[in-house]
Amino acid sequence: MCEQSERICFSLPEWVSGYIASCRPGKSLEDRMAMVIGAARQNIQRETGGPFAAAVFESDTGKLVALGVNRVTAESLSMLHGEMVALALAQYRLHEYDLGGQGLPAHELVTSTEPCAMCLGALCWSGVVRVVSGATEADARKLGFDEGPKPGNWIQELNRRGIEVVPEVLRSEAVTVLNDYRQRGGVIYNARQLRGSPEPGR
Amino acid sequence: MCEQSERICFSLPEWVSGYIASCRPGKSLEDRMAMVIGAARQNIQRETGGPFAAAVFESDTGKLVALGVNRVTAESLSMLHGEMVALALAQYRLHEYDLGGQGLPAHELVTSTEPCAMCLGALCWSGVVRVVSGATEADARKLGFDEGPKPGNWIQELNRRGIEVVPEVLRSEAVTVLNDYRQRGGVIYNARQLRGSPEPGR
Question: Cβ B95–A76 below 8 Å, yes or no?
């Protein structure tokens, strides 16, 4: 934590830089996803957060810009989903709130699990042009994670904002990490338990 | 900025602590909203961010826990909507990712404008039991802000998660701040321009 009370700071776990150095990502989407799922696995094995990770890459070259892992319980901040951490770190490093801003290469977010309602909204403001996901919302729900109020047509809503969606890349590998987290008795950190039936059409 | 590259820090503007000290909030929702709208006004007058502010209060006593203002352009982080800043600061101060956690008083978020898609999702993970808003989504859209992919039944979706919604408290005062921002030529910081028609039923 920083000293000033009007300042908020959060960090990646210390193992992240070593993990990145150990990776030799190729150019394919599967290569990028494998790196992200590996980070989610490290995050639960080292007990530094939930079973989710995400990373921002330059779309064309596959160059890693920022890797994020879930830090909700570790930092006591409910917004610190892997996607939020990765997007924030990328923007922080580039000093640019719009990753699609003039003069920048196209950026994409690769996430080990489909974005929840919060991360879906955050994607729209981030400036990425593509989101690539592994496990599905249904996979996360099976663990007990509430994914929040997403509209049924969320993929079209991203498309309307110029964001391509590529789902279920290495889904089974991503689900394995989710299942391992459950077997370890990992915290399911919903603030609220859902009441009543799901809305129609989900 | 902090020194470590794997750490992200962001701050409130310096004027905030003085502003809070100058306020004498009463207990009513209107009193709480007036304080929040006043902060949004300060934020545009001092040019420290967008025309939005939010605060976390203890619901029963009206005690202020954390005041946040929009810091998107100032900190180059697209997630820093007023609501996200207020929720994060409250959790940071209480060292608790669930503001509805055991042993804590009930907390609520008061926001000068209805939450966008990202902030709607964030509310569900935050642990607040009530959200009170001033200007509407339509008011923000008039300025050109895209509020993102929110489901049409978002109020019921919050209700299902135990979160009460109280809209349009001091709406006209909140709209005045939005209009002043437009007249000043404030940045409308959408990453993407919308393409195509809105989805049906919005």
Answer: yes
